[in-house]
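2024-03-11 09:14:02 INFO worker-7 job=invfold-0412 stage=load source=structure_tokens
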């Protein structure tokens, strides 16, 4: 079994996170994904956990992804807004993750010792505002109505998010597994149909 988990199992205080780093999720999403990891690994010693970052790719609606939803803020030029410029993310295209899962499954069929926890994340680092700027540049959209918010999130934020959840991907890379679609290429393919 291959269980897809999240970088949100970490608190974001000590990146990059190795596969054996001690999880400390800050929010319910991270906690439930960690619970899923624990059950997966306890159920069968040959099972695999793949932790991934924020994902993006083709969507049925723009708000389907925490990345693609940023297009809404760009298109609403009559509504000034603030976008976080604090937390660091390494977005990954869903096609990259699908390819990694396939490669892992194929390697697992060849070698039963391929099991346990693995990490993957994109090679480019962005804040949400940084992703928004990249989207604006790819599609030649104005973004002067969007202000970067570099403030530390309040302790009373409904869903606390980790600062930097960079994952150490070396375990996968040692197996010759991994691929990174450049963000500007991936986001163009993901959002092209939503631009008029």
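2024-03-11 09:14:09 INFO worker-7 stage=emit residues=196
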């Amino acid at each position: 079994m291959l269980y897809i988990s999240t970088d949100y199992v970490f608190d974001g205080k000590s990146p990059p996170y190795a596969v054996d780093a001690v999880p400390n999720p800050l929010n319910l999403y991270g906690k439930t994904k960690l619970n899923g990891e624990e059950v997966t690994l306890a159920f069968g010693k040959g099972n695999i956990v793949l932790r991934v970052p924020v994902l993006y790719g083709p969507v049925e609606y723009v708000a389907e992804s925490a990345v693609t939803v940023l297009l809404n803020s760009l298109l609403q030029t009559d509504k000034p807004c603030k976008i976080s410029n604090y937390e660091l993310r390494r977005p990954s295209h869903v096609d990259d993750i699908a390819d990694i899962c396939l490669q892992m499954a194929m390697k697992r069929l060849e070698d039963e010792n391929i099991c346990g926890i693995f990490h993957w994340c994109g090679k480019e680092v962005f804040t949400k505002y940084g992703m928004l700027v990249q989207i604006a540049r790819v599609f030649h959209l104005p973004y002067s109505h969007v202000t970067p918010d570099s403030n530390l999130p309040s302790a009373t934020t409904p869903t606390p998010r980790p600062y930097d959840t960079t994952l150490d991907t070396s375990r996968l890379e040692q197996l010759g597994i991994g691929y990174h679609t450049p963000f500007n290429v991936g986001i163009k393919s993901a959002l092209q149909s939503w631009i008029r």
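2024-03-11 09:14:09 INFO worker-7 stage=report msg="Residues 36 and 42 are 10 Å apart (CA to CA)."
2024-03-11 09:14:10 INFO worker-7 job finished
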